[in-house]
């Protein structure tokens, strides 16, 4: 294998790799092995069919597998020799490998060059005093007592606070169903609305129905809905109530508490209070982490490399395209939506790139990394979801660039968590 690494300003790198025909042949034969093992043909023992025969039946699959394996090998070996770690995904250029011919491909990616970082550890995120919300505390009490409750189907009357309802919801505009606004059959618990809290749009519709009835209401289309032409428009919600279950809770006594595994009734109340307090503490920590992320994204005097900004924008658009392809039947509508999203993604990408550059730079300074075992476990889980073996899935991610985006994102999240533990000031 031979390679050439070209360096450009702003952390951009271009890697060109060339494999000899002999190396391609070795990869091609290895890629054909799984197909040969399962291929049956008269005149040949299992697993002994000639490569030429397998190519006639599985040419594209063998070509894809051999190419993915060579790309993975070439990138991994070159990056290891150069001690480079991409800060995001990469852009691949090249055709598929072909048996008997040399194979050449190129990738562009961004690395973080040495530069001074702001003192991130000087940031302070202060936690407000956690408070046990009374409504949440009562819900936890209901949850505990619910272990001993009886669920009674309700066939008459309308649902009440605490009832579990089964509903079907369809969102429509102009009589047409809106993609992503349909729940099918789902179950939900009706919760009391706390002072100052917005009532969910479904809530009043469901509460006005009896079992078997259908009602309608409206909700504004979210500002981040993928189709910009839909944002802010009123969506008609068509809701059918399929069932109601009402819990009959026991009266809290010491005997009931003991049947639930508590010492007495006071211990049940203390548990509900502690859970509500912990929930608020977790919420405040989460809000603090969001505040830290925002501080990093908006930090003045530090700009991410333009190559990283462009890659973050490409990654956002790639994910949007994957989602939108499952939402739109019209190719023209998809293209129009992506054009709008591309312009909107610019500033978001710049903020994300700034935070990533800061966090990855800080991670390198602190010696943080994503353990190989942890990364491979994530790959294995994702591969299982796609019914693929982990090695084949990993190879396929290398050519798309997603492998390096995933690793960078995992390291970024690890660095954010470590920095949060450093700058967070809990309430005392």
Note the topology.
Blueprint lengths: L1 E6 L4 E8 L1 H18 L12 H32 L7 E4 L9 E8 L14 E2 L7 H12 L4 E4 L10 E10 L2 E14 L12 H6 L6 E7 L13 E15 L5 H6 L5 H33 L8 H20 L5 H36 L5 H14 L4 H11 L1 H22 E2 L3
Parallel strand pairs: 5-11
Antiparallel strand pairs: 1-2, 2-4, 3-4, 6-10, 7-8, 7-10, 9-10
How would you describe this protein?
The protein has 428 residues and is an alpha+beta fold. It has 3 domains: 2-110, 2-Layer Sandwich (Alpha-Beta Plaits); 134-277, Chitinase A, domain 3; 279-425, Orthogonal Bundle (Trigger factor, domain 2), CATH 1.10.3120. The chain is 49% helix and 19% strand. It has helices at 21-38, 51-82, 134-145, 202-207, 254-259, 265-297, 306-325, 331-366, 372-385, 390-400, 402-423, and strands at 2-7, 12-19, 90-93, 103-110, 125-126, 150-153, 164-173, 176-189, 214-220, 234-248, 424-425. Strands 6, 7, 8, 9 and 10 form a 5-stranded antiparallel β-sheet that branches. Strands 1-2-4-3 form a 4-stranded antiparallel β-sheet. It has a two-stranded parallel sheet with strand order 5-11. The longest helix is centred in the last third of the chain and has 36 residues, at 331-366.
Short summary of the structure?
The protein folds into 3 domains: 2-110, Trigger factor ribosome-binding domain (Alpha-Beta Plaits, 2-Layer Sandwich); 134-277, Chitinase A, domain 3 (Roll); 279-425, Trigger factor, domain 2 (Orthogonal Bundle), CATH 1.10.3120. Strands 6, 7, 8, 9 and 10 form a 5-stranded antiparallel β-sheet that branches. A 4-stranded antiparallel β-sheet has the order 1-2-4-3.
């Amino acid at each position: 294998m031979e390679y050439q690494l070209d360096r450009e300003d702003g952390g951009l790198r271009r890697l060109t790799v060339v494999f000899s025909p002999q190396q391609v042949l070795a990869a091609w034969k290895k890629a054909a092995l799984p197909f040969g093992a399962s291929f049956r043909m008269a005149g040949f023992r299992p697993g002994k069919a000639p490569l030429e025969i397998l190519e006639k039946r599985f040419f594209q699959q063998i070509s894809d597998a051999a190419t993915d394996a060579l790309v993975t090998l070439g990138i991994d070996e070159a990056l290891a020799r150069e001690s480079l770690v991409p800060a995001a995904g990469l852009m691949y250029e090249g055709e598929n490998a072909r048996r008997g011919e040399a194979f050449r491909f190129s990738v562009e990616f961004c690395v973080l060059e040495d530069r001074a970082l702001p003192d991130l550890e000087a940031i302070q995120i202060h936690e407000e005093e956690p408070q046990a919300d009374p409504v949440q505390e009562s819900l936890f009490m209901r949850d505990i007592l619910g272990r001993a409750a009886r669920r009674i189907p309700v066939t008459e009357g309308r649902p009440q606070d605490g009832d579990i309802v089964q509903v079907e919801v369809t969102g429509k505009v102009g009589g047409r169903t809106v993609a992503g606004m349909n729940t099918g059959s789902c179950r939900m618990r009706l919760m009391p609305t706390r002072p100052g809290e917005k009532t969910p749009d479904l809530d009043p519709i469901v509460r006005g129905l009896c079992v078997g009835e259908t009602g309608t209401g409206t909700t504004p289309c979210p500002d981040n809905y993928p189709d910009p032409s839909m944002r802010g428009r009123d969506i008609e919600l068509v809701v059918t109530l399929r069932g109601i279950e009402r819990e009959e809770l026991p009266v809290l006594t010491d005997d009931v508490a003991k049947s639930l595994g508590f010492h007495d009734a006071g211990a049940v109340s203390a548990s509900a209070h502690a859970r509500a307090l912990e929930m608020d503490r977790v919420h405040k920590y989460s809000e603090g982490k969001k505040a830290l992320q925002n501080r990093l994204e908006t930090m003045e005097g530090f700009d991410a490399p333009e190559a990283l900004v462009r890659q973050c924008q490409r990654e956002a658009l790639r994910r949007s395209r994957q989602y939108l392809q499952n939402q739109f039947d019209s190719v023209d509508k998809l293209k129009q939506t992506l054009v709008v999203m591309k312009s909107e993604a610019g500033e978001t990408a710049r903020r994300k790139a700034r935070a990533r550059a800061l966090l990855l730079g800080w991670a390198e300074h602190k010696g943080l990394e994503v353990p190989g075992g942890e990364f491979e476990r994530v790959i294995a889980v994702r591969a299982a979801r796609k019914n693929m073996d982990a090695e084949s899935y990993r190879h396929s991610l290398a050519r798309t660039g997603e492998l390096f985006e995933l690793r960078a994102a995992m390291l970024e999240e690890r660095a954010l968590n470590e920095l949060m533990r450093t700058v967070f000031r809990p309430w005392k």
